[in-house]
Amino acid sequence: MAKVVMVRELGGPEVLKIEEVEVGAPKEGEVRLRIQAIGLNRSEAMFRAGRYPVPPQVPTLIGYEASGTIEEVGPGVTGWKAGDFVGTLPNFRLGSYGVWGEQAIVPATSLIAVPPGLSAAEAASIWMQYFTAMAIIEVGEATIGDHVVVRAASSSVGIAAIQLANWAGAVSIAATRTSAKRDALIALGAQHVVATEEADYGAEIGRITGGKGARIVFDPVGGPYVQTLAEGMCERGILFVYGGLSEQQTPYPHWAAAYRGLSVRGWIASEIWNHPHRFERAKGMILQGLAGGQLKPVIARTFPFEQIADANRYLESNQQVGKVVVTVGA
To answer: Which among 79, 101, 108, 116 could disulfide-bond with 4, CB atoms 3.0 to 4.6 Å apart, if both were Cys?
Structure first.
């Protein structure tokens, strides 16, 4: 028996229940992990609350980013063995598997070796953020002198995007609601910070870019503010909308896009990991950055497994700068 989080009703963090369950043996193409750390993501909070694009059917497992040790390998699995220390790539549908527990069954296709030198907590906090932020490199082709605006910059993905932009030689601009996190974002590498609720965004972007506007905007929030973001962009810029945290309709900024020749593009990280050649290239870059120090996971706070509901409350409080991680066992 193992302690596992089950969601039996949709709602706030209080619906997360830790239960004793028999996880069982892995089936064809699966492995069973002994979980050591869990990385929390906003998508899981929306899933739990019933606000995900495909609402879950309860009861359901939850969670798709973790690190741990393989306990048992199922039939047909090659390349992995019991005792391997691995992370989970979040490339399965939420609810079809779930890693919030002491043990978890996951598909072998979701396993990825932990890079050298990372703790269990760090290993549970890299793949979602860097593969998501890789949009600015792989598609946006950020390069020397580009201005890259990162909205919700204090999130783990936001910090990853700042690191990638800096590594590419671009000018990173952190967009955050208030100036409360300004010093922390500067310390983490943001070259400029714009507090969108306290300053004139367009004027600030004009000042920072010398009137040219940003070439890349990376936005997980969506909603009406995309119009403002688009108006602060340069000709032939690219605006990524990779989330819907505003939970409002996101209008197409027609005239800003038309006059500037902008591309407005949706994005999810599976666009990379569902294509083997793109996956291997991006993974290699992430590993190179981790080894060289250009990329470094930032953990805002860790919680013990028994406090996973509190960890979710903290995630949704917007207080964090970096990844919220839950540790499991000793």
So the answer is: 101
